[in-house]
Write a structure and sequence with these properties.
alpha+beta, 2 domains, 11% strand, elongated
Length: 296
C-alpha cells in the first residue's frame, strides 16, 4: 500500500498475523507451509504477481516471496485498496473469533474460510481513504519486550514462594515416609503430599497471586522453573525425590557428558538447607552442594 510503483521482498519467519499470533486453520499442512501460503495470499490480495524463491542461507526458514509487478492497472488502485481494507478487517474479526456484521464478511467454520474475495463492497464506515489509518486500534508491541516467564521476578520473592509451597506440601498430610536403601540405611525421608495447582494457589496470599498473575503461566511456571525442588505432573505439584531420578546416560556424547559434569555442585542444595530431613541423597551423589564449602 506504499505506492503503485512499490516492489517487495519478504522472508517469513515468526508466525504472526496483522493483530497477533497466526492461528492455524489447516491440519493437513505443516505450520510453516500454511503460514507461507498466508503470506503469499497477502501479496496476492495486495495486487502483486507473487513469486516464491528458496534462499541459499543456513536456515530452516529460507523460503521467500518477491512482488515485482502488479496484477492491476494504476487507475484501479482505489478499488484494490478497498479490497485490502476488507481483507485486513476480516483478519481482525477472525483474530477475536467473532463475526462483526459491520465488516460485511461471511466466516465459515469458525473463521476457517477465507474472507470474501473482491466484489463485495465494504460498509461505509469501514471504507478508508488515502491518508487514514489502515488498522484502527492497532497497538505495536514495545521496543523492549517485557520478560514474563517469572525469570525476572525478585529472587527474594521467588525464594519465599518456593519455601511456602514446599512447607504446604510437607504439612498437607501426616508424614509420608520413604525408605532410603542407599548404603543399607533405613532412614525415612518425608516426601510430603501432592496438591493441585488450584489448591496451592488457594493457600497463597492475594499480593503473591497478583504478582504471579502478570507472568505467563503464573504459579505453574514459577514452580517448573524451580526444577530442583518441585515436579509438576498433570496439574499436580509434588516435591521432587532425587532418588527416583534416572542417572545420566553413559551413552551421552562426550560433549554433553562434560557439560553435565561441569554443572555439578554449582548451586546450593535446597533440601540440605530447608527440608526438615535434609537431602535424600548423600553429598557425593547429590548434584547440588551440601554447604558453601562444596560449591564449585
Amino acid at each position: 500500500r506504499s505506492s503503485y510503483s512499490c516492489c517487495y521482498f519478504v522472508l517469513p519467519c515468526c508466525f504472526f498475523d496483522f493483530h497477533g499470533k497466526y492461528s492455524r486453520r489447516q491440519s493437513k499442512k505443516t505450520q510453516y507451509r500454511e503460514y507461507l501460503d498466508f503470506v503469499a495470499q497477502v501479496g496476492s490480495v495486495c495486487g502483486f504477481h507473487v513469486e516464491e524463491d528458496c534462499l541459499r542461507i543456513p536456515s530452516t526458514k529460507r523460503v521467500s516471496f518477491v512482488g515485482k509487478s502488479r496484477t492491476y492497472a494504476a487507475a484501479e488502485r482505489a478499488r484494490i485498496d478497498q479490497h485490502i481494507t476488507q481483507f485486513i478487517n476480516g483478519r481482525r474479526s477472525c483474530a477475536v473469533a467473532t463475526c462483526d456484521r459491520r465488516v460485511g464478511f461471511n466466516h465459515e467454520d469458525h473463521c476457517g474460510g477465507l474472507c470474501k474475495e473482491a466484489g463485495s463492497e465494504p460498509a461505509e464506515d469501514e471504507t478508508e481513504t488515502p491518508g487514514t489509518i489502515w488498522m484502527p486500534g492497532f497497538q505495536p508491541r514495545e521496543k523492549v519486550e517485557q520478560i514474563r516467564n517469572c525469570a525476572s521476578l525478585p529472587r527474594d520473592f521467588v525464594d519465599e514462594v518456593v519455601l511456602n509451597v514446599a512447607n504446604l506440601l510437607l504439612n498437607a498430610a501426616p508424614q509420608k515416609s520413604c525408605t532410603d536403601k542407599q548404603g543399607g540405611n533405613m532412614n525415612t525421608w518425608n516426601q510430603g503430599e501432592s496438591l493441585s495447582l488450584r489448591e496451592v494457589a488457594e493457600h497463597l496470599n492475594k499480593d503473591t497471586l497478583k504478582k504471579l498473575k502478570s507472568e505467563y503461566g503464573g504459579l505453574q511456571t514459577l514452580l517448573k522453573n524451580n526444577h530442583q525442588v518441585f515436579e509438576v505432573l498433570n496439574g499436580r505439584v509434588h516435591i521432587r525425590d532425587w532418588r527416583k531420578e534416572k542417572p545420566p546416560s553413559k551413552t551421552k556424547p562426550e560433549v554433553k557428558r562434560r557439560l553435565s559434569a561441569e554443572a555439578f555442585k554449582t548451586r546450593l542444595c535446597w533440601f540440605f538447607i530447608h527440608h526438615p530431613d535434609g537431602c535424600s541423597l548423600p553429598s557425593e551423589a547429590c548434584p547440588y552442594a551440601h554447604g558453601t564449602e562444596e560449591l564449585r
